[in-house]
Amino acid sequence: MKLQKLFLSLENDINKLNANLQKIIGAKHPILYAAAKHLFTTGGKKIRPSIILIIAKITNEQNNIQAEHYRLAEITETIHTASLVHDDIIDDCDTRRGIETVHSTFNTKIAVLAGDFLFAKSSWYIANLNNLEVVKIISKVIIDFAEGEIRQGLTNFDTFITIEDYIEKSFYKTATLIACSCKATAILSKCDKDTQNDFYLYGKHLGLAFQIIDDILDITSKKDELGKPAYSDLKNGNLTAPLIFAVEENKQLYKFIEQEPNNTQDIEYIINMVKQTHGIEKAKDLAEEHIQVAIQIIQNKFKCQNAKLLILLGDYILDRFN
User: Secretion signal: which residues (predicted)?
Assistant: First the structure.
């Protein structure tokens, strides 16, 4: 199922969110404004805010979305976008979603400031929700992002990284935002602690599966399909699930990866070796395990139509690989 069809019932809500994002980035300096606006005019799947809006409907007796939920969805997308700006600088990506990244269009200094600006803006809007519990949980996400990047940087080309290490790093870099946003949505809806925790775990496992599939696609897809350079994980020494499983199966990969390949020929040689192992298949199985946990959480407690959308989202994430 295509994402647009899956989220068809949210079309008006997403249009409203896109309009508000343009207002959120209002900046006095024209260069900073241009850099921030550049990010929000490149599309994006809007998966994170869509999940928030669906959970808002599930947890509201009138099946509607409160102003605070809309604002949380906007904050979440702003935080996500800010993290992409910094990721692109660290990974030296020239394109994102098929167009030039901020640091390629402007320069690295402007890109760093644009990312910082968006983090600061999101923090200000979080504070204005006037809910201390939500402030705490969403603020922790920004800390987790930094933790994830540092962990990744310290393990570049480390062939001894374990799947457990990878999952922990993936939580900090990706799943924490989805998990914490899901829980914050339930908090704003005044749900009980058990329900808050259910949505947190749903977001956590969905986020981990999303990251694993994304890492598989970095190996199996072409640049025009990804919207960013292919093989960027290996180029930057970031060992992901399919690479870790492949190294476990074919010990020869150790020496090739430890040589820190930086030219296209060497990287493609390693990628072909990875494809000859069961690394990609095992990584997909791992993603499916996390999807099944996420689906089970929703199926056990929620029976409404909007809950079915959360379940179908799990299918969509796995279908990205197929």
Answer: none
